[in-house]
Amino acid sequence: MTDKMREAAAFLREHDNYEILTHDYPDGDTLGSGYALCMVLQQMGKKARVITTSVPKDYLFLQEGVVAQDFEAETIVSVDIADEKLLGVNREKYEGRIDLCIDHHITNKVNAPLKLVEGSAAANCAILYKLFRLMDITWTRGIANCLYTGISTDTGCFRYTNTTSETMRIAADIMDIGCDTVYINKVMFETKTKKKIALEREVYDTIEYCLGDRCAIITVTLETQRAIGVSDGELEGLASIPRCIEGVQIGITMREKKPNEFKVSVRTNGNVSASALCETLGGGGHTAAAGCTVTGTPEEAKATLKAAAARFL
Amino acid sequence: MTDKMREAAAFLREHDNYEILTHDYPDGDTLGSGYALCMVLQQMGKKARVITTSVPKDYLFLQEGVVAQDFEAETIVSVDIADEKLLGVNREKYEGRIDLCIDHHITNKVNAPLKLVEGSAAANCAILYKLFRLMDITWTRGIANCLYTGISTDTGCFRYTNTTSETMRIAADIMDIGCDTVYINKVMFETKTKKKIALEREVYDTIEYCLGDRCAIITVTLETQRAIGVSDGELEGLASIPRCIEGVQIGITMREKKPNEFKVSVRTNGNVSASALCETLGGGGHTAAAGCTVTGTPEEAKATLKAAAARFL
């Protein structure tokens, strides 16, 4: 255990009336962290609530076991938030007011008097697991479900490169506490809607290989989106399709937003920088995942993207 | 450690000149088991080779560290083989000759004087891990890679219902030995060949929903297999497609092996037993994943499967 972890445990014992902040466009790790910590604090006789911008339907079960409490907030804790900019609509209210920041992003920029940041943790929930062990909490299925959800979603169910042997052992301990892994894995990793299947089928027909098959482009036309009636959730994840094709270094997804305007997602393998590529087209992002907007007819937009990709291969 | 495990360890020490049998349409678990055991036996100064019907390209790396040896076979071990029928073209030569059977299928029907069968193991490679610990072998990266490949592929990278906390801890131990998880996870779970993409596209067109959409059936015809020129490796994994559709409890994959003969994979959610279903058709397997062979025209075979599925819904 680190000194910071002991400090964080002492801090949580000493204070009360907690608001726990999660990041915008919330995922399993920020929500799992938030609700797990909230249940632990309530179990200790404290008052606590989780502040979110929204909770996607598939994550609603994480709230089971949390009691709605009426109180005036005194203590602010952020979980899985690398930067206060990521507070979304809650930024104005909470920026500069965070007392304890718990996070696993090595680039953490949150301004707080006490920070428990472990960049080597695969998920923020893995840090909380160790903190809760130190605090000797009473383990419940609800807390275990929250932590397992955070760890499994942030590691792509233990297949991303951030997964370590420690991650695996923490997950094993959580499973032994008692945790609905069958339900969670099914919902998070093993379920596609019929519309999603129909969408993938349509998109497969649009795959175009270029630049010696090192680049693959898929297109989601407005017509397809309308015909199938897909939601944003169903469109999510499509961008990984071209990148996963054997030999492809640059995978491009063109989503028609309105006639002659495309939202473009670029995913890369190996040494190609997706953000550098997208920056040449006015966009940006991360090394392996970035985006931009391209206008023109489908043919013109594709030509623009191919020319940009060619400069990076 | 069970008595059977001690017996198996003693058996392997006492004998020599091994042929290790893997099952037809080999997967990561049978090949990982075969090559890991072969390396362990060679390390002990024994002569050993692995007998396969084929080795899909993606699994060729498992052979690294195995030495080709010339010898007359004396001792026959089967790994991950539930039934001698699954020996494929090697059946005639080896049926009734197996001395030691190591397997994790609870329905194991192999006829052998010594059987180490643990139905609770997520993968055969998980049994071998415990056996190798008992035997106090010298661990190498090659052996670790084989065992990790078997365990990760048989659990869908730790997301299938057969994954237990013991599975997670064994994987953690293997990662600590030193193992190429980044490479293995990329190849096994994050890469699709162009042919695989073409195959999925064709298969999406064959999805048939029945029994109130609680059952979905996909068909891979000989024509599709020939037209795309797919390998066994590319066919693997298709079976998870129908099961992953929202609301589907029984997902069935019919692969035409020759005219009017189908290799059937059944995958189930919830309370439906895939092995019980397949046993009614002369097959077997695990609770959530099982198989059988069905003959007849495509329509007849499908009718047979629908009738069998109906009894379990």
Secondary-structure element string of chain A: HEHEEHEEHHHHHEEHHHEEHEEH
The CA-CA distance between the termini of chain A, in Å, is 46 Å
Shape summary of chain A? elongated
State the secondary-structure class of chain A: alpha/beta
Name some characteristics of this structure.
five-stranded parallel sheet, 13 helices, alpha/beta, six-stranded mixed sheet, homodimer, 313 residues
Compact description:
The structure is a homodimer of 313-residue chains. Chain A has 13 helices and eleven strands.
Characterization of the model:
The structure is a homodimer of 313-residue chains. Chain A is of the alpha/beta class and 313 residues long. The first copy, chain A, has helices at 3-14, 28-43, 91-94, 124-135, 141-154, 165-177, 181-189, 194-204, 222-228, 232-235, 240-243, 274-279, 298-310, and strands at residues 18-21, 48-51, 75-79, 100-103, 114-117, 208-210, 215-220, 250-258, 261-268, 284-285, 289-295. In chain A, the strands form 2 sheets. Chain A has a 6-stranded mixed β-sheet, sandwiched between helices. A 5-stranded parallel β-sheet of chain A has the order 2-1-3-4-5, with helices on one face. At the A-B interface, α6, α7 and α8 of A face α6, α7 and α8 of B.
Helices and strands, with pairings:
Two copies of one chain form a homodimer.
Chain A: H1 3-14, E1 18-21, H2 28-43, E2 48-51, E3 75-79, H3 91-94, E4 100-103, E5 114-117, H4 124-135, H5 141-154, H6 165-177, H7 181-189, H8 194-204, E6 208-210, E7 215-220, H9 222-228, H10 232-235, H11 240-243, E8 250-258, E9 261-268, H12 274-279, E10 284-285, E11 289-295, H13 298-310
Parallel strand pairs in A: 1-2, 1-3, 3-4, 4-5, 7-8
Antiparallel strand pairs in A: 6-7, 8-9, 9-11, 10-11
